[in-house]
Amino acid sequence: MKIGQLVERSGLTAHTIRYYERIGLLPYADRDQSGQRDYDASILSWIEFLGRLKATGMPIREMLHYAALRDQGPATEAARRELLERHREKVRAQLAELSESLLVLDAKIAGYAGISKRMKEYDALPERRKRPATVRRAAAR
Question: Torsion angle, CA of 48/51/53/55, rounded to 10 degrees?
Fold first, then answer.
């Protein structure tokens, strides 16, 4: 598949594909008779995996280390597993922190919802309804 097709199917830009190739995240593509890159379709699963690593915050230097281990073959499976396990723990810690932050946001939002509800209840009090609207608005300021 040509680079344009890989761009379409992977979601990466041609610039990113060439950059990943240059730094070693992607293997160098074979070239056709005219010198254009010709990628094997199997590269799509590797690109998807790299995207997952990136989305979970793995630094490029660690991705490069993983790619280098991968290129060395089955003898590096234990090292690759350890690298991914360490990264998984970082992701779990991030998820826990995000969950705590979400709880704080939910509480803050609920507090604001409570203010709105209390104002509606206050405006609905019988003694508030007897005053003209212009007086109620002035009192609210």
Answer: -140
